[in-house]
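Handout for the seminar on molecular recognition.
Each group receives one record of this type.
Step one: identify the two inputs.
Step two: read the structure output and locate the region that could contact WT7.
Step three: write two sentences on what you found, then compare them with the reference statements printed after the record.
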Amino acid sequence: MADDIIAVKPAIAAKARIDAARREAMVAAEAKDAEAFWRGEMTRIAWMKEPTKIKSVDFHGDISIRWFEDGILNASVSCLDRHLATRGDQVAIIWEGDDPNSDAKVTYRELHARVCKLANAMRRLGVKKGDRVCIYLPMIVEAAVAMLACARVGAIHSIVFGGFSPDSLASRIQDSECTLLITADEGRRGGRKVPLKANADEALLTCPSVRHVIVAKNTGGAVEMMKGRDHWWDTITAGEGETCEPEKMNAEDPLFILYTSGSTGKPKGVLHTTGGYLVWASFTHENVFDYRDGEVYWCTADVGWVTGHTYIVYGPLANGATTLMFEGVPSWPDNGRFWQVCAKHKVNIFYTAPTAIRALMRDGEGPVKKHDRSSLRILGSVGEPINPEAWLWYYRVVGEERCPIVDTWWQTETGGILISPLPGAVALKPGSATLPLPGVKPALVDNEGNILEGATEGNLVMLDAWPGMMRTIYGDHARFGQTYFSTFKGMYFTGDGARRDEDGYYWITGRVDDVINVAGHRMGTAEVESALVAHPAVAEAAVVGMPHELKGQGIYCYVTLKTGVEPTEVLRKELVAWVRKEIGPIATPDAIQWAPGLPKTRSGKIMRRILRKIAANETEGLGDTSTLADPGVVQELIDNKVG
Ligand code: WT7
């Protein structure tokens, strides 16, 4: 069933921006003369001075990636000002609250005014081009306003997901030395409140760089305001004008930093710049979703993740779209919420994550069919491999076999989608992200870095740059080269494994490094380990991913306690709560196994391969354990496997 092919629908192809012939022509044009191709595409955004230099890329040595490098622009102008004459009264953002009775619509003209007012207030607080501003907000319109206001004044935003703990927030603020924090009193999710300002207050105890805090009033919940430091959003923007001179930015000036987890060390600040990122956001949003003027487009992600950056805010707004922003969760007040919102706002394009699809599948077709989905035209998936069962359910039940599914593979680092069907051009296979977009050059390599041809499986790399790729790790360019370009010389290594079939289709198999993907959220196993060993009862910990029916992967922890500490149920619960508090609820361990010993090589290296197999119940082929210092610990762990 997984190898079913679903042909392009003639009705979609006939009207699509890109049909099969057009796609071929684009791929050929880009291959023949990449500079000419991107010179043509760059005009999709507004430039104050058009670039003459298009591409300058070196994947060797110090690694340097520059696109449109002598161009001058401001991202907020592309997303706002240039739409005012043609679509000032069109809705830019439809906001749908956690509470099904609350929603709001913001036109391009209103959004422009709100962004300018905040940008003026930020300038008055002393925020200048190049300063870092941390945004810790729930899914309210203010989040988009804050991003665009940063872009307006040339400040680099760093959004921290509202589900992260005070400690996680603090370490991100410290790493990029943010001078301003924009937050809200509280967030709302699934009928519960999230104490954002209280978390921020705790984080700021260790963040001396932050001089000002702007607080949006959202729930009206009581918060403490520190005199001189904290300002209410409404008060500080009240007297400001509704126009604001946009800062002139070079195409390669940074637009934002977004922290993401890797296989080692603390989260790294992925840095994206202005021109190439915005061209890529616009190009991919328009073509992958076949977006047409007047359509309502909904991406269910949170702006705290890259999906929200590129496909709730920058891509759609650059394209003059109507983008829906949802504060809530798919399961509240009931499991029909997504479809109720689709019916209410007549959503045409819907983009969500496999974990949500799998969770909703459990309730059957009832909650879906209760709501009218006839407005839906295109469905999208992102964040993790989508299993064929979930794909087919999404296709048959949600989309009534009418809507193509675009399974979009990409990463925080890539800025936007790289591998995905184009709905009018590429036949679908359930579970496959299909083919690279024009301008994207993937390859599969073996562990020695040899490029593999034809139908095969290997490590997924990119042989050349595309405009939207990350430029560096904030403050640590050496780590950038080390992380992405040293495993396979001269190639960008994604950290993913993939299979390529006879038709050249890519099937992403998942991470091949020590990164796990829990419900579409990326987590470094090393981060969870360091949270565990920070607990006074823990001597050592090893964390691996385990298969999880809903979340894709769950967090499996092997914990060695300090001598004399009793492994009790109370302690187990305490450790689970501890990790949640240290990192945030998204890092909640799914299983903790007491491990009197861990399998180590004679040189002391933990053999994670073995731990992964035990957690996955794959103890048949454990492979070579002869290099272990104490082979006996393996049997002990198998015998006491949790769950
Ligand atoms: C990792 C990137 C892409 C934005 C959201 C996540 C996995 C992402 C797919 C997909 C299979 C996918 C990969 C990738 N992933 N999309 N369509 N099929 N796997 O961004 O947090 O940077 O995570 O998510 O493993 O490396 P991220």
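Reference statements: The first strand starts at residue 55 and ends at 58. Residues 260, 305-307, 382-385, 407-412, 433, 494-496, 508, 510-511, 517, 522 surround WT7 (CB under 6 Å).
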